[in-house]
Design a protein that fits this description.
By secondary structure, the chain is of the alpha/beta class. The protein is about 35% helix and about 25% strand. The chain has 11 helices and 19 strands. The chain has a 5-stranded parallel β-sheet with strand order 2-1-3-4-5, with helices on both faces. Helix 10 runs parallel beside helix 11. The chain is globular.
Length: about 425
């Protein structure tokens, strides 16, 4: 193998998968490998898989077939969360040379010297980054999950929760900021389970955010933190204090609510929070943040979900100030308790419920876009300098009217004035100040 080995990475799934693909990319480039934009030009292809839904696994299979068809001479490496339950199917595909389980993903940095037969897990955080393929880098602070929601396959694919050493986190934060990035997304599989120590004290995710915020305020003015998906149990008084005092946190939260019906939450194994708790917190937050983006994950059609259960979720979402949502239809995940539950909801009913929720959130998004026009200015991270598109602090895509491509680069954080809304694209049109 020569140092000019050409590679192509295809990533499915969550922000953590994207982070890990970036870490592998950086490692391979440091070896002299060359990343290509077209799979047809690659000698080796990595498929970084997801298994969170039935559709995600179907996509893994679809893309393996497609890459084999488009480039029959390439070797394919499949890694990620689809491996534990679907390894035998995946290994039967043409061109698949290596199958690397999620818990061993870090051995890919040693490619081409892969010890696939070593079944020991590699340290979760030996994959690190200094750069990112997007304008807003992810900082991985935690991996795995020990909660075991009854529908979720993630604990079976990624294992128990593990928290990253804070010194490594802060080193990575500083590397990314030194390399010119102005927004960092603090992310993990379950941020609720992040626990470590700092200066002799036990800390959680809110303590970490506060520490990073102070570093930014002192040495990296003009940079900001964005929080990835949060378990609603994290919405406490400490959260209110941190969100109130740390001015460089993007005014946007994304909550993994899944359902707003107490009985369904209990069946899901998520009785550690209640819809009332979420509602009370958001009401308090509204007194701190005048305007903020608020997203959520909702899972419809969990086994036994009645019309009444669903309506409780629908009405909750209707009265809450959500600005967008990710709506999923429940699908059986092998090895999870819910896959064997009776009263599975018919596919057509799940489809209808998800359609109703999505329509609700389309209206909410439009109303939120209108509110953006009342602002004097927004702070936009430039994500595409050629198309002059970026993301503002409220998690709204912004098109920059009067930007000069020569003056802007990917990752820049600029002030802009809201001008109008493109309702078809669901974008805000802004003008540079």
């Amino acid at each position: 193998m020569t140092n000019k080995k050409r590679f192509f990475i295809f990533t499915l799934g969550c922000k953590i998968n994207q982070y890990e693909s970036e870490a592998i990319r950086e490692s391979w480039i440091s070896k002299g490998f060359v990343e290509v934009e077209d799979v047809k030009d690659a000698d080796v292809v990595i498929v970084n898989s997801c298994a969170v839904t039935e559709m995600a696994v179907s996509d893994v299979k679809k893309y393996i077939r497609r890459f084999s068809r488009e480039n029959p001479n390439c070797e394919i490496i499949v890694t990620g969360c689809a491996i534990p339950k679907w390894e035998n199917v995946i290994k039967s595909f043409e061109n698949v040379k290596y199958i690397v389980p999620q818990k061993q993903k870090a051995i890919l940095k040693d490619y081409p010297e892969l010890d696939i037969n070593n079944k020991q897990s590699i340290e979760h955080f030996s994959l690190t980054i200094s750069n990112y393929f997007r304008a807003r880098p992810v900082v991985k602070i935690q991996d795995g999950c020990s909660h075991y929601c009854r529908y979720c396959i993630v604990p079976l694919t990624r294992g128990a929760s593990v928290s990253r050493d804070i010194r490594d986190i802060l080193d990575e934060v500083k590397r990314l900021l030194d390399n010119g990035f102005h927004e960092l997304i603090i992310s993990g599989i379950n941020l609720r389970e992040f626990k470590t120590s700092y200066n002799g004290k036990d800390i959680d995710v809110w303590d970490l955010v506060e520490i990073i915020s102070k570093i930014m305020a002192k040495d990296y003015k003009g940079s900001r933190i964005r929080l990835s998906s949060l378990d609603p149990s994290l919405l406490n008084n400490k959260a209110l204090r941190v969100l109130n005092t740390c001015e460089n946190i993007a005014k946007h939260l994304h909550l993994s609510i899944q359902s707003a019906d107490r009985d369904i939450l209990k069946k899901m194994g998520r009785a550690h929070y209640t819809p009332d708790h979420i509602e009370q917190f958001i009401e308090k937050l509204s007194n701190i943040w005048r305007l903020f983006g608020l997203g959520c994950d909702v899972l419809v059609g969990f086994p036994g979900e009645s019309d009444s259960n669903f309506e409780n979720t629908y009405e909750f979402c209707k009265r809450m100030p959500f600005t967008y949502a990710h709506v999923f239809q429940y699908s059986k995940r092998p090895g999870t308790p819910a896959a064997k539950y009776p009263d599975q909801v018919p596919k057509q009913l799940k489809k209808e419920r998800s359609r109703r929720l999505r329509e609700l959130f389309v209206g909410k998004k439009k109303e939120f876009l209108k509110k953006q026009l009342q602002l004097n200015n927004v702070s936009v991270v430039v994500e595409d300098r050629d198309k002059l598109v970026g993301m503002n602090e409220y998690y709204v895509i912004c098109e920059i009217l009067n930007g000069n491509k020569g003056d802007l680069k990917k990752g820049d954080l600029v002030k802009a004035r809201p001008v109008c809304v493109d309702f078809e694209k669901k974008n805000l049109i802004v003008s540079l100040e």
